[in-house]
User: What shape does this take?
Amino acid sequence: MGTRRERIMEVLLSSDAPLTAEAIIEAAGLDMKPRDVYEELEHVRKTLRRQGIKLVMVPPECRKCGYVFKDRERLSRPSRCPQCKSERISSPLFYVIR
Assistant: This one.
C-alpha cells in the first residue's frame, strides 16, 4: 500500500474535488486523527513541490461572521476567529495543481 504520506499523495493526486483532512483519512484508509494529517500534509507539500506539483489549501472560514483565513500559511484548522472569537471554523480543503 505504501507509507502514510504516499497514500495521502495518491488520494490528493487522484481526487477531482478539494478534500478535508477527514475525507483524506477516509479515502486513504488511514487510522489517524485530523491533526496528524495536517502534520503529514506539511511534508507532502514539500515532496510534491519537488515534483513540480503544488498543494493548494482553500482557506478555512468562520461560520458565524464569515471571516476568511486567506493569509494563513499553516495547513491546520485555526481554533478561533480573530474577529468574533467564535470556534465555529470550517475545515480547510486541499487539492493539487499539476
